[in-house]
Specification:
The chain is an all-alpha fold. Helices cover about 95% and strands about 0% of the residues. The protein has one domain. This is Lysine transporter LysE.
Protein backbone atom coordinates (compact mmCIF):
# COMPACT_ATOMS: atom_id res chain seq x y z
CA UNK A 1 0.00 0.00 0.00
CA UNK A 2 2.79 2.40 0.92
CA UNK A 3 4.60 1.75 -2.36
CA UNK A 4 1.40 2.58 -4.23
CA UNK A 5 1.08 5.91 -2.38
CA UNK A 6 4.73 6.76 -3.11
CA UNK A 7 4.15 5.93 -6.79
CA UNK A 8 1.17 8.31 -6.89
CA UNK A 9 3.27 11.03 -5.22
CA UNK A 10 6.03 10.61 -7.81
CA UNK A 11 3.52 10.81 -10.65
CA UNK A 12 1.99 13.94 -9.11
CA UNK A 13 5.46 15.47 -8.72
CA UNK A 14 6.36 14.78 -12.35
CA UNK A 15 3.01 16.16 -13.51
CA UNK A 16 3.47 19.29 -11.38
CA UNK A 17 6.98 19.86 -12.73
CA UNK A 18 5.77 19.42 -16.31
CA UNK A 19 2.90 21.87 -15.85
CA UNK A 20 5.23 24.40 -14.16
CA UNK A 21 7.66 24.14 -17.09
CA UNK A 22 4.76 24.45 -19.53
CA UNK A 23 3.32 27.54 -17.83
CA UNK A 24 6.77 29.15 -17.58
CA UNK A 25 7.44 28.49 -21.26
CA UNK A 26 4.05 29.91 -22.19
CA UNK A 27 4.67 33.01 -20.07
CA UNK A 28 8.14 33.57 -21.54
CA UNK A 29 6.83 33.13 -25.09
CA UNK A 30 4.01 35.60 -24.47
CA UNK A 31 6.46 38.04 -22.88
CA UNK A 32 8.83 37.77 -25.86
CA UNK A 33 5.95 38.37 -28.25
CA UNK A 34 4.85 41.47 -26.32
CA UNK A 35 8.41 42.78 -26.20
CA UNK A 36 8.92 42.25 -29.94
CA UNK A 37 5.68 44.13 -30.65
CA UNK A 38 6.83 47.00 -28.41
CA UNK A 39 10.26 46.96 -30.06
CA UNK A 40 8.69 46.95 -33.53
CA UNK A 41 6.42 49.88 -32.59
CA UNK A 42 9.42 51.81 -31.28
CA UNK A 43 11.32 51.13 -34.51
CA UNK A 44 8.34 52.33 -36.57
CA UNK A 45 8.03 55.41 -34.37
CA UNK A 46 11.69 56.37 -34.81
CA UNK A 47 11.37 55.71 -38.55
CA UNK A 48 8.46 58.15 -38.85
CA UNK A 49 10.31 60.70 -36.71
CA UNK A 50 13.27 60.58 -39.11
CA UNK A 51 10.87 61.06 -42.03
CA UNK A 52 9.59 64.29 -40.53
Amino acid sequence: MLGFVIHINEATLVFTQKSIVYETTRFVNGFNRKMSIVFFAARLNSFFVTLQ
